[in-house]
Amino acid sequence: MLGRQARRAAHRPRRGGQRRARRRSGGRSPQPGPLGGHGTGPGGFLREAFRLFRERGYGATTIEQIAEAAEISPATFFRYFPTKEDLATLDRFPPLMEALTAQPPGAPVAVLRGAFRTAFATLPAEEIVAGHAREVFAATVPQLVTANLRRSPALVREIREILADRAGYAPDDPRLRDAIGAVFGVVAMVWLQWAEDPALDGPAEIDRALAHLESGLHL
Prior knowledge:
The protein is an all-alpha fold and 219 residues long. The chain has helices at 4-11, 15-24, 42-56, 63-69, 74-80, 94-102, 108-122, 125-140, 142-167, 174-196, 202-214.
C-alpha cells in the first residue's frame, strides 16, 4: 500500500511539466484546446495519444508514456479515461444524438442524413480532424474494433428509439433496422476511405453518399 506521502505525490501535478507549459505559453496558463479541454485536459491527452499511437503503434504505447507526453500524472489521466481503450472507442457522439432529436419528421434515411449534416456543421474543423483521427484507430486496431462491437448494441438501440419517434415507426419495425444498417454501413465505408485519404472532405462525402442512398442507390 502507498504511504500518505506517496499517495500525495501520485496526485500532485508535476511542477517541471507546468513550468515547461508556462514557458511555451509565455508564462500564461494553458488555454483551452480544440476539443474543449485545456492543453493538459482531454483534448491534450487525445492529441498526444494519437501521435504516440502513430509513431509507436497502439499496443506498444503505454498510459505512462501518454501521461508523460501530455505533462500530467497517470492519476490525472485515469480521472478522464478508465483505460487506454477508452481513448479511442466510439461513444454516443452527443452532437449526432442532439441533431437527430431536433430533426423534423421524415423518412428514416432523410432524418439520419439531416442529423449527420447538422452534427458536422456544429463542430469546429479542428474537432472534426481530431475525431477523424480517433475513429481511424477505432476502425483499424483489432482490440478497438472488438471493443466497439461490444458497445454497438446500446448505441444502435438509442438511435433506433430516437429515429422511431422522428420517422413515425415502431422501434422494433424491421424497416427501421434496415435503414439504420444501410446508413451506418455507408458512413463506415466513407470513414474507411477517409482514413486512407486524409485530404478527403469527409463530412461532404458522407452527405453525398447518404444522398445517393436516399435516392435509391441508382447507378
